[in-house]
Amino acid sequence: MLIDKERQENIDMIKKSIKALCEEFPESYWREKDDNKAYPEEFIEKLTEEGWLSVLIPEEYGGSGLGTLEAGIILEEINRSGGNAGAGHAQMYTMGALLRHGNEEQKQRFLPKIATGELRLQAFGVTEPTAGSDTTNIDTVAVREGDKYIVNGQKIWISRSQQSDLMLLLARTTPKKDVKKKTDGLSIFLLDLNDQKDNVDIRPIDTMINHSTTEVFIENAEIPVENLIGEEGKGFKYILSGMNAERMLIASESIGDGKYFIDKAVQYANERVVFNRPIGQNQGVQFPLATSFMEIEAAELMRDKAAMLFDEGGKGGQEANMSKYLASEAAWNAANAAMDAYGGYGLAKEYGVERKFREARLYKVAPITNNLILSFVSQHILGLPRSF
User: What is the CATH number of domain 237-381?
Assistant: First the structure.
């Protein structure tokens, strides 16, 4: 699928604008945030002010009304610059369930404020300690009592819940024993974290990267009925469409990471002289970088195809999964090629490679492990027996 001339010109403008913005936040900025496990508040505020985090929100609700492809390009360029788009990416896609499945009153109430940044919706409350990737097995329950739901449960690996005003929450509204299909009986809500702070205990998880990840304990939190998104019991179907968008955007970040590693390694390999010759003259340095470059180019083509299919009609689920797999694997290979090119200097924080090396590893296992994507392709595309 080819990008038409007008769209390509717009994409080129986006790349130029994001590059200029990111120059205000050099790698030293990100290194300081990483060292202190601090949230890049200044960077997110700048992205919000310039409207980059609201590009997927239609114009009638205060956004730009652009496509998933353009959103992906924004995240790609942030990561290619040495930044970490993961600090703000959920503000783009988490509102998708509201946009696609919410009623007009909900859209008018929330989307304009999300577009301006007055409300932050970055927290996506799905994963639980005992369920993991088996989403239909979650234990968080929401019981209706009059005009509200009472919610109890536990979520884990919920990023940026401390930086969010709202959480898109998946909870079981019908017991598993009472549903015909295990995907039934799940509902999604907008949980007001500010209003329910006494009933929601957020605990940071210390990880190898600065990703603002938390564990969330919910005890008797109240959600008004008007914050139920769509029809009760149909939430699993609603979140799936959002997950496809998420995977394309994550693929974009990995593509940006991969380009970052190639950019840095090529520059270093041309400048670093050992045995009276640049190390980039050695095939042992050249070939891994050339291989990674081609892998990244291929992943980018799959990302573009997935995004354009999604933008044209909400399709492209297969391509979204494959793009996430290909991009995250390509980025990780590029990370290792760059680390090998730098040698011992790659371990030094001042060069930036070791931080991005750690960050690139995340997307091989999140937001979905690549092994599950392999299972998906095997079963649903190749027609092989289900393996689990």
Answer: 1.20.140.10
